[in-house]
Amino acid sequence: MPVFKTPFNGYSVKFSPFYEDRLAVATAQNFGILGNGRLHVLSLSPNPSQPFTEIAAYDTADGVYDVAWSESHDSLLVAAVADGSVKLYDTALPPTSNPIRSLREHTREVHSADYNPLRRDSFLTSSWDDTVKLWTLDRPSSLRTFKEHSYCVYSAVWNPRHADVFASASGDCTLRVWDVREPSSTMVFPPHELEVLTCDWNKYDDCIIATASVDKSIKVWDVRSFRVPIAVMNGHGYAVRKVRFSPHVRNLMVSCSYDMTVCVWDFMVEDALVSRYDHHTEFAVGVDMSVLVEGLMASTGWDELVYVWQHGTDPRAP
Amino acid sequence: MATQSPTQNQNQGAESAEPAANVDQQGATEEPVKQSSTPLVFVNSEPMREEQVQNAVKFLSHPKVKGSPVMYRRSFLERKGLTKEEIDEAFRRVPDSAPTVQTGGVTQDGQVKSSSNIQQQAQPQALQPGLPASAGVNTSSATLSRSRFHWSHALIAIGVLAASGAGTAIVVKNSILPRLKSWIRKVVVEEDDEELKKLDRKPTLVEEAAQAAKSAAAAAADVAKASQDMLISKEEERKHFVEVVSLLDMQVQEMKSMTNALRRIEAQEDLRVTQTNTKQLIVNGKADYDLHSVRSTSPPVSYEPPSSLHPKSYMEIMNMVQRGEKPSNTRPWEVSQVQNSSTQVPHAQGNGEYLNSKVQDSTQSNGDGDDALPWWQRKNARIREIGNETEYNGNGSSYGVASNQPPPQRTWVPPQPPPIAMAEAAEAIRRPKPAAQKDQMSDTQSVGNSSDVSDEVTRIPRRSESEGAVEGGSSSSIPSTVEIQEDQELRRE
């Protein structure tokens, strides 16, 4: 299985929704504390001697914490940069004209970016300045700012079924569900006693949402009855950094954690852990499952490596 | 309260919708299909819990809580699991706490406007006649008392400081200064005594120096005597040596005559024997010379790791940043124009196009066989099988699922050893003990090797040092010469 070595520490990896062999990697120098960043666009090739080809690499003045592919254009990317700016890149244009836009509104680091899969024209960015901002590609400024959290917002994710609903996970230990048409959040509840680092909607059931936290657990909730979780999955040794539901299997989800492992879970089963991959030698920080290829997943971490492998195989096998 | 009204209307609207939603959802928990009903799903559709509201009211009425920023109060209640309606109700019931209702900013200026609105809110809220007057007075007096408290606090602090300064001055004058004076007097007296002692000591020093000089002169005289004896002995040895050499020459001449006679008498085989003997001697002598030269010219090799590539750990970088230093490998980046990317992109774009065509070809020729499929599209059947399976492995499986499942056409290959990338690091992390032991072993071995080398290197100078020590260290004359002669003779043999 191919391994790509990035020059900087990896932060996020996302598969392209248009090309099944393409993915973007967001990296930051010096573990993201201070320094430059780089956004890689990689292409997988069947050639085993050179499994990865780098289509493009964009350098930034500060670390890139997250990347999101556009759902409307196959070559557009949104990068969440640690200096508070949101940068748009077009891989079809020459590197001299990239980034095509730099949006500076957040006052602190932008931690996540997510593109609306249904409306395809707007995207969200969440930041450490306690806000979530809604943008469209054509406007130079944000459409809306959602400011209700009292601490860093680590993740904002669109609902895959309802085009105007999204959820935000924050360091103030709450999860908020918003409707873009409403002036304020429609739901707020505390899924964990400690900071909630990530959340993701189930792709097959629009009311099920998973959250993961510094308390090393992953909880799956039904927003209609949010007092008690559907499932609680322990097993990680340290804080869980990212959670993603599988686009192909209803109950399957993947998580990556500071215990350097990537785990696959089935939350409807009593013994939920399906498999555990400990191929990283540093914090595993980013993970993604491909929408176009069933079972294909990618992960990256602070050990500057990007692995792409099929579920059920060894990511380090050559 | 002015800007709370729109949110109250919203909440009332939501609340009016909620009973309907509750009725619907109590009947059957089904997913709403219509988009118009989506707000009802993603809402805290529970009735308000009076207990929670009362707890929140108690919390908000606590004096310590009233001193905290309003945002913290709200986030605390949210963290305790209260719904928005319950929180709003609690804020309504505790009148003088002004919740900063930061609704989703309508425009970009929303934040600024909301903050200014909040400030305007606070003042009319404090002065509203609807509020209990005592509460208002309490708050105002509290604020005023706070302000006065600040001034009085400052005055008290100044007074305390002045008093302490005066007190210390008095104490110093009365007690410490006399002590100082007495101590100084003592020191002066001691210095006078020391000066006298020094004068006494000086002649002793001079005497000692004279004695040392005398002993040194005696030692030098002894050394000179010993060296003279050495020279005499050397001359005698040379004489002996010359005699021995002459004897040897005589013997050599006799030998030559003998060999000449043998040559005349016997055939070429004798010549070969002598020649091979001489060659062996020559070879051995050369080998010794080579070893000797290798030992003398092999200093211990020192390895310097490339300092520029030394990766720093997370804690090192955090400490650097906190100290205010910047990690050295950052570059200021104005525009993201990279020379590397410019060279890579045209090349990669060409590759990308080629790859796309290739992928299309592969997908078209899907039925040809496994080779046409890209590697990431293989083993799809495996995933479906896993999905159909109801049993899953426990936590023990490290490299995937398929070890216990019945393999269909494609068998699960045991994991290969990891590739070169980061293998050493991975091994080091995985097996710390044997790696540490191995390192220790290798370190001790390497240390042993280096020490051997260094021992061999220093043997020769040590020998010379020992020679010097033997020759010059002794003070007696006659027995030393005898010893020297004996040592040298031993070495020759």
Explained architecture:
The complex is a heterodimer of chains A (318) and B (493). Chain A is an all-beta fold and 318 residues long. Chain A has a single domain (3-310), classed as Methylamine Dehydrogenase, Chain H, CATH 2.130.10. In chain A, 0% of the residues lie in helices and 50% in strands. A 4-stranded antiparallel sheet of chain A has the order 1-28-27-26, with no helix packed on it. Chain A starts with a strand and ends in an 8-residue tail after the last strand. The model of chain A has no long low-confidence stretch (mean pLDDT 93). With 493 residues, chain B is an all-alpha fold. In chain B, α3 (50-61) crosses α6 and α8 (133-265) crosses α15. In chain B, 10% of the residues are buried. Helix content of chain B is 72%, strand content 0%. At the A-B interface, β5, β13, β16, β17 and β25 of A face α1, α2, α5, α10 and α11 of B.
List its traits:
heterodimer; A: 318 residues; mainly beta; Methylamine Dehydrogenase, Chain H; 4-stranded antiparallel beta sheet; globular; B: 493 residues; mainly alpha; Arc Repressor Mutant, subunit A; 15 helices; flat; disordered N terminus; WD40_rpt (chain A); transport (chain A); Peroxin-7 (chain A); peroxisome (chain A)
Please outline what is shown here.
The complex is a heterodimer of chains A (318) and B (493). Chain A is mostly beta strands and 318 residues long.
Work out the largest interface and the residue count of each chain: A-B, 99 and 94 residues
The assembly state of the depicted protein chains is heterodimer
Uncertain regions of chain A: pLDDT < 50 for 5+ in a row? Answer: none
Reported for the largest beta sheet of chain B, the result is: none
CATH class of the domain at 50-93 in chain B: Mainly Alpha
Compute the number of strand runs of chain B: 0
Distance between the termini of chain A: 5 Å
Give the rounded overall mean pLDDT of chain B: 63
Query: What gap, in angstroms, lies between the N and C termini of chain B?
Result: 115 Å
Helicity of chain A, in percent?
under 10%
Q: How many beta-strand segments of chain A?
A: 28
Shape of chain A: globular
What's the CATH topology label of the domain at 50-93 in chain B? Arc Repressor Mutant, subunit A
Going by CATH, the architecture of chain A would be: 7 Propeller
Number of helices of chain A: 0
Radius of gyration of chain A: 18 Å
Structural class of chain B: mainly alpha
* Helix fraction of chain B by DSSP (H/I, runs of at least 4): over 70%
Q: Kindly report the average pLDDT value of chain A.
A: 93
Largest sheet of chain A: 4 strands, antiparallel
Structural class of chain A: mainly beta
Keywords (chain A): Cytoplasm, Peroxisome, Protein transport, Repeat, Transport, WD repeat
Protein name (chain A): Peroxin-7
WD repeats (chain A): 103-145, 146-188, 189-225, 233-275
Domain EIPR1-like beta-propeller (chain A): 152-265
